Amino acid sequence: MNKTFKAAAVSAPAMLAATAPALAQSMDQKINDIFASSTGWFVSFIFSPFPGTSFPWIVAWLVVAATIFTIYFGLIQFRAFPHSISLVKGDYSDPNDAGEVSHFQALATALSGTVGLGNIAGVAVAVGIGGPGATFWMILAGLMGMASKFTECTLGVKYRNEYEDGTVSGGPMYYMTKGFAERNLPAGKFMAVLFSVFCILGSLGGGNMFQANQAHAQIANVVGDFPGWITGIVFAAIVFAVIIGGLKSIASVTEKVVPFMGVLYVLTALVILLMNANMIGWAFGQIFAGAFTGLGVAGGMVGALIQGFKRAAFSNEAGVGSAAIAHSAVRTKEPITEGFVSLLEPFIDTVVICTMTALVIIITGQLVSDPATGLYLLDEGGATIQTIDGNKGVALTSAAFSASFGWFKYVLAIAVILFAFSTMISWSYYGLKAWTFLFGEGHTKEIVFKVIFCIFVVIGASANLGPVIDFSDAAIFAMAVVNIVALYFLMPIVKRELDSYLSRLKSGEIKKFH
Amino acid sequence: MSNKIVVGYDSSDSTKATLDFAIGLAKSQGAAIVVAHVLEWSPYSFLTPDELEERHKRRGEELERAETAILAPIVKSLEKSGVKVTTALKYGGIADTLCDIVKAEGATQIVVGRTGSSGLSSRIFGSVAGTLAQISPVPVTIVP
C-alpha cells in the first residue's frame, strides 16, 4: 500500500507534466493571479511607508520594540547569555523532574519551527535585494530581537493554561487575556482575538505557503521545471497524513533529522568559509561598507537596512509571538528561565545560521559588481542585484554552496524539503492553537482548520515567489503589531520576575543541581 | 545502618535469575532489596510541538504503568520470599540513574542482569551492565 502510494506520487507528476504542460502552467498562473489580487490590499497596508519616505512603518515598529526591550531589561541578551547556556545544559534542572519537557527540548522544538527557509532562502532574498550590507542590519536585528523573544516567552510560560489532564496551552492569546485582566487593563480579549486571526493567516502564509513555494523551487532546481501545484499536492498529502491522519512517525522522524541537517548546513558553510579564509576580511568589509552606503543597491543604505531587518524578523520571529506558543510547554517553576533559554533562539537562528548563508553567498561571488566602481549592478527592473546565473531566493543559496561542492545542491534540496516540512508542522500547530482559541476545541473544528492548511500548501507551491513572500511577511508582521502592544503593557510583570529571580540566584536560593 | 542491595529490574527474561540471586544474597546477609526500574529518557531528545504539549500527561501515565504493571507484581512475589523490599522508579540514562539510586539509598551493592547482546550493537552503544561495571560507586554483580 505504502509502496504503491509512493510510486503513484512519483509517476503522477512526471506523467502530468509530460501530457499537459500548457494546461498546468496556466493553472499555476490562474492561482497566482487570484492570490495576488485578493491579498494585495493587506500587503500594501502592512508595508506602507512613513509619509514622504520609503521606510515601512512595520520595520520601525519591530526595531523600536526590540530596542526598548533591550534597554528596559538592561542588555539582558548579553548579561544572561552564560546563564541561558547553563539552563539549556540542565545545570539547574531538578533530577526529580526527569521525564518532563526540558529547557533543551522546548528550545529545540521552537528552533525547528524557526530555522528553515528563512535562513536559506530568506537570506538570499535579503542579500539579493539589499546587497551584503543587509547582513549587518540582519545581525543587529537578530541581537536586538533576543530581548523581544525573552519578553514574550517569559509571558508565554507565566500565563499558559494548564489543564487537569496535564496538557498545556500557551501563547500570546493567553497572556493577552490573563495578563491584561491581572493588570486591570481593558481590551485583552479583543487583542487576543485579533492576534489569533493574524496567527492563523501567518501560519497559512509564512508557515506554509512560503515553505511550499521554496520547497518546490528547490525540487525544480534539481530535477528540472514542472508545475508547482504538483509539488503542492504531494506535500499537502504528506502534511495531511501527519496532522489529520495522525502519522506521528513522519513528524518524529523529521524532528530528529532536521537538527542534523541544520548542523550539516552550518558545518558545510564553515568549510566553504575556511576554504576561502583569505576572503573573509573582504566579505566583512563589503558587509560594513554596504550597511552604510548601500554599494549601489536599490534604495541605498535604507534599502539594505529594510531588507536586513525584514528578513531577520521573518527568520527568527522575535516579537511575532509564535515562539511564546512553542516555549510554553516547558516544565519549570520559574517562567523567566524559559525567557532566558528562548533568547538563544534569535542568536542561533539569525546571528549564526543566517550570517553563514550570507557570507557564503558573498564570498563565492554570486552578486555581480562593476569592477571599476565596486558598486553592484542591478537587474533590468532595477530592484534586485544581478547574480551570475540570474538566481534568486533559494536557488541563489544553492548556487553559492554548489560553487564549492557540486553535490551540495542535492543535500540542500533534501534539507530545504525537511526544513520546509518541519516548519509547516510547527506552524500548523501554532495556527491550530489560535484557531481553537477562537472557535473552541473540538474534533470537527480542528479538522476544518487542518484541511484549510493543506489547501494552502497547494496554493503556496503554485503561486510565484513575489506575491507569496509579500503575503507571508505581511501576515507574520501583523501578528507582531498586536503582540508587541501587549508586550509593552505586560513588560513590568517580566521585570518583576526578572528582579526576583536574579536576586534569588545571587543569594544562592536558586542553585545548581549538577 | 542497614544493608541494602539495589536490583536493576527491566522485566526481561534474564531478570528472573537476577532476582533469585538477589533474594539469596539478601537472605544470607540480612539485607533489604531496592527494586529499581529506570524509564529511559534523555533531556536532549527532540520532540514535536504536540509531544511537548502532552509530555506532562504522558509522564504521569508512564509512571503509573511502570508502578502497577512492572513494580507491583515483583514486590508482591519478593515479599512472599520474606525479604524486605522497597522500590525506586526514575527517568534517565539507565546506568547513571542506577548509580544515583545507589547513592540516594545508601546501598552497598548492586545486582543487574545481562541483556546478552553481543557483537556490533553493544560495541557501538555499549551495554548497561558493562557501563555500570565501569562507573558504579559500589560492587556490581552481573547475573547471566
What does this 3D model show about the protein?
The complex is a heterodimer of chains A (514) and B (144). With 514 residues, chain A is mainly alpha-helical. Chain A has 21 helices and 2 strands. Chain A has one domain: Sodium/glucose cotransporter. Chain B has a single domain (4-143), classed as HUPs (Rossmann fold). Helix content of chain B is 51%, strand content 22%. Chain B contains 5 helices and 5 strands. In chain B, helix 2 (49-80) links the parallel strand 2 and strand 3. Chain B is globular.
Quick recap of the structure?
The complex is a heterodimer of chains A (514) and B (144). Chain A has 514 residues and is mainly α. Chain A has helices at residues 2-19, 21-46, 57-72, 76-79, 81-89, 103-114, 117-130, 133-158, 172-182, 188-223, 228-243, 248-275, 280-293, 300-316, 322-327, 335-342, 344-363, 394-404, 408-439, 443-462, 465-507, and strands at residues 161-162, 168-169.
CATH architecture term of chain B: 3-Layer(aba) Sandwich
Name of the CATH first level of chain A: Mainly Alpha
Largest interface: A-B, 36 and 26 residues
* Uncertain spans of chain A: 1-20
Give me the side-by-side strand order of the main sheet of chain A: 1-2
Count helical runs of chain A: 21
Mean pLDDT of chain A: 83
Mean pLDDT of chain B: 81
Q: H/E element string of chain A?
A: HHHHHHHHEEHHHHHHHHHHHHH
Q: How many beta-strand runs of chain B?
A: 5
CATH topology of chain B, what is it called? Rossmann fold
Any chance you could write out the topology, listing elements then pairs?
The complex is a heterodimer of chains A (514) and B (144).
Chain A: H1 2-19, H2 21-46, H3 57-72, H4 76-79, H5 81-89, H6 103-114, H7 117-130, H8 133-158, E1 161-162, E2 168-169, H9 172-182, H10 188-223, H11 228-243, H12 248-275, H13 280-293, H14 300-316, H15 322-327, H16 335-342, H17 344-363, H18 394-404, H19 408-439, H20 443-462, H21 465-507
Antiparallel strand pairs in A: 1-2
Chain B: E1 4-8, H1 15-29, E2 32-40, H2 49-80, E3 85-92, H3 94-105, E4 109-113, H4 120-125, H5 128-135, E5 140-143
